[in-house]
Design a protein that fits this description.
Bound molecules: adenosine-5'-triphosphate
GO molecular function, one term: translation initiation factor activity
Shape: globular
Largest sheet: 9 strands, mixed
Radius of gyration: 26 Å
Low-confidence stretches: 1-42, 53-139, 276-280, 600-633, 640-647, 649-679
Number of helices: 23
Strand content: 5-15%
Distance between the termini: 23 Å
EC number: 3.6.4.13
Oligomer: single chain
Keywords: ATP-binding, Helicase, Hydrolase, Initiation factor, Nucleotide-binding, Protein biosynthesis, RNA-binding
Family: Belongs to the DEAD box helicase family. DDX3/DED1 subfamily.
Structural class: alpha/beta
Function: ATP-binding RNA helicase involved in translation initiation. Remodels RNA in response to ADP and ATP concentrations by facilitating disruption, but also formation of RNA duplexes.
């Protein structure tokens, strides 16, 4: 508590809070429980001096906030239903609600139906057997091209569809590259594997299919990112790839470009004669490319990207994921599906219904493979890849993307990839230097007040993503922020798809510039202009941290991340120090002290799955790769048989820029006495 002698709160934090003019409050913190006059509510700076009702009148606030995007009001209603039902609403009830209104899903493109409405109403007249070849008119990529007579016939350009797919230069929801985009070229790239082909240098001279090049330009891409440079050339050489690259550095294009380049060049695959399923599969869609993704939002986002680059081509992208109306997804798939983006569970469902056959798959992508395993998808993934009708490893090209490469991912790679190239852009699992990362010592009971200070100290319209550990906390915190008149919404796994979608939409559009999220939003989500990520609760896993902060500082833009740390987070301290050092970030003096405490308590390097044990002691002969890429303790490639490494980019690295005393800091310095001369947060 402020001034109450809590030794764990840095003194300067007290000063900061005291300097904020709390007014009549003796206790500057939210829910202050001490102080001579009893509990006092923390009053954020923007509400100080206003009548107290402004702060506490929940209904008034809710009414106001409902006009931000209806999100809170909707949630409040659903909570009353929950309460009336005596607690937890059965999932089926939530599902009914979600399935009951499909118009929203369609409108926002979550089911892939974002195309020109005129085209959406066009009757689909059968595309495979109409004598016109493959392709035709359709909604998902705008006007579709054809594959006819062994040739790729492009669809007509359509300005309306282009504006919808690619946005306009002024569109705030369009990602623009940032000042540091060119610095991606300074990141060391390593490709290990037999005869790894040289990367391309730019889009224009890469002999890309003309339509793909046109679409890349419409998307506003002028220079390929390192992962794209390599993957395009690997794709052309027909090589399998396992890739790790920093957040926001263009991995989606990294798998879409090689797949589409080859597909545009070679046309569709003929269905294998008598694929053994006979009539049962006669209605099945037979995509040539399958992209597996862990979450609905990520699948949907990949589909949106695919729609851009498939524009006017014969390739029809399609997306399926759980939690949404399966009937509509079935209809979409039936209308044609050449590139399928799917979450594993829903795909298994469609396969079981005989509506998707994998017999024509030529390209398989596993995006965020480590996350899919964390989420328990391995049985479904193995079934999809090994036990259905997908061509074996020799008959397809497989690309895997993963933040880490521990044993279980290696097993998948061993089984799913052939003679593959391991591509790493920067050290495996590192964060981008485009993100300024700060670690603040904040006790749990002080978190809300510090968050309010942060949110009210900067531009109120900036997009801020706040990560918490639990779904309940996400709801509670977004409510707290709403009470303080900060437009906030929440996204987590217990919210219906429609609510999740709404929350994301409101956030993207800036109507609710604060989004409180659980890990569900940590991976892959690409939202332009997120300028601040707050780890209200730090995760236990360092990889999760990397993905969370990676929601800002994307495509060469700069971003900020602040993490609230206290002794409950000791387990992540060492990995955090390594990470901060490597990304040239400041390391608070107290962090190494706490990290040492952590190791005393058996905390330290807990990595959950796989764990790190420093190399050979793991029996499997995993090596702690320390190369030009810097520290490699999250790169678990086998030491035996590891192919020779070929540097693909400039080597570099550099030490920590921060003042951090690092591991050698004064051991007696307790966290409570962190020195900090900063006047403002960001
Ligand atoms: N060559 C490029 N030129 C300009 N912008 C690009 C380029 N490649 C990707 N982008 C943009 O950069 C942003 C990040 O790309 P993407 O989402 O593919 O990153 P990622 O590496 O998959 O990130 P994450 O690890 O978080 O999933 C996107 O908005 C994308 O449109």
């Amino acid at each position: 508590m402020a001034g109450s002698g809590n030794n764990n709160v840095p003194g300067n934090l007290d000063q900061r809070l005291a300097g904020l003019g709390v007014g009549d409050s003796n206790d500057a913190r939210a829910g202050g429980k001490t102080g001579g006059n009893g509990p006092k509510r923390y009053i954020p700076p923007h509400l100080r001096g206003k009548p107290p009702t402004e702060v506490v009148d929940k209904s008034a606030v809710l009414e106001r906030t409902s006009s931000w995007n209806g999100d809170m009001a909707a949630r409040d209603r659903s909570r009353s239903t929950e309460r009336a039902a005596g607690g937890d609403v059965p999932r089926a009830a939530a599902g009914r609600d979600e399935r009951g209104d499909t118009s929203d899903v369609r409108r926002s493109g979550f089911a892939g139906g974002r195309g020109d409405p005129m085209e959406r109403t066009t009757t689909w007249a059968g595309r495979r057997d109409d004598g016109r070849g493959f392709g035709g008119r359709g909604a998902r990529g705008g006007p579709l091209g054809l594959w006819a007579g062994g040739k790729h016939v492009y669809g007509q350009r359509n300005p309306r569809t282009e504006a919808e797919l690619f946005g306009t230069a002024e569109d705030p929801e369009r990602m623009h590259t940032g000042i540091n985009f060119e610095k991606y070229d300074d990141i060391p790239v390593e490709a290990s594997g037999r005869d790894a082909p040289a990367p391309i240098t730019n889009f224009d001279e890469a002999d890309l299919e003309p339509l793909l090049l046109e679409n890349i330009k419409l998307a506003g891409y002028t220079v390929p990112t390192p992962v794209q440079k390599s993957s395009i050339s690997f794709g052309r050489a027909g090589r399998d790839m396992m890739a790790c690259a920093q957040t926001g550095s263009g991995k989606t294009g990294g798998f879409l470009f090689p797949i589409l380049n080859e597909s545009f060049r070679n046309g569709p695959a003929a269905a294998p004669a008598g694929d053994g399923r006979g009539h049962y599969r006669s209605r099945a869609a037979r995509p040539i490319a399958l992209i597996l993704s862990p979450t609905r939002e990520l699948a949907s986002q990949i589909n949106d990207e695919a729609r851009k680059f498939c524009y006017r081509s014969w390739v029809r992208p399609c997306v399926v994921y759980g939690g949404a109306d399966i009937g509509m997804q079935l209809r979409e798939v039936e209308r044609g599906c050449d590139l399928l983006v799917a979450t594993p569970g829903r795909l298994v469902d469609l396969i079981e219904r005989g509506r998707v056959s994998l017999s024509c798959i030529r390209y398989l992508v596993l995006d965020e493979a480590d996350r899919m395993l964390d989420m328990g998808f391995e049985p479904q993934i193995r079934r999809i890849v090994e036990k259905e009708d997908m061509p074996g490893v020799e008959g397809r090209q497989t690309l895997m993307f993963s933040a880490t490469f521990p044993r279980d991912i290696q097993m998948l790679a061993r089984d799913f990839l052939k003679d593959y190239i391991f591509l790493s852009v920067g050290r495996v699992g590192s964060t981008s230097e485009n993100i300024t990362q700060k670690i603040e010592y904040v006790e749990d009971e002080d978190k809300l007040s510090v968050l309010l200070d942060i949110l009210t100290s900067g531009d109120p319209t900036r997009l801020t993503l706040v990560f918490v550990e639990t779904k309940r906390m996400a709801d509670r915190l977004s409510d707290d922020l709403l009470y303080s008149q900060l437009p906030a919404s929440a996204i987590h796994g217990d919210r219906t798809q429609r609510e999740r979608e709404r929350a994301l939409e409101g956030f993207r559009a800036g109507r609710t510039p604060v989004l409180v999220a659980t890990a569900v939003a940590a991976r892959g989500l690409d939202i332009p202009n997120v300028s601040l990520v707050v780890n209200y609760d730090l995760p236990n896993e360092i990889d999760e941290y990397v993905h969370r902060v990676g929601r800002t500082g994307r495509a060469g833009n700069t971003g900020n991340a602040v993490s609230f740390f206290n002794r409950g987070n000791r387990g992540i301290a060492r990995n955090l120090i390594d990470l901060l050092k490597e990304a040239n970030q400041e390391i608070p003096d107290w962090l190494p002290v706490v990290a040492r405490e952590g190791s005393g308590f058996g905390g330290g390097r807990g990595r959950g799955r796989g764990g790190y044990s420093g190399g050979s002691s793991r029996g499997g002969g995993f090596r702690d790769q320390r190369s030009s890429l810097g520290r490699g303790d999250r790169d678990f490639r086998p030491s035996n048989g590891a192919p020779s490494a070929a540097a693909h980019g400039r080597s570099g690295g550099g030490g920590a820029r921060g003042s951090g005393s690092g591991h050698g800091g004064a051991p007696s310095m307790p966290p409570a006495f962190e020195s900090d001369s900063r006047n403002s947060w960001f």
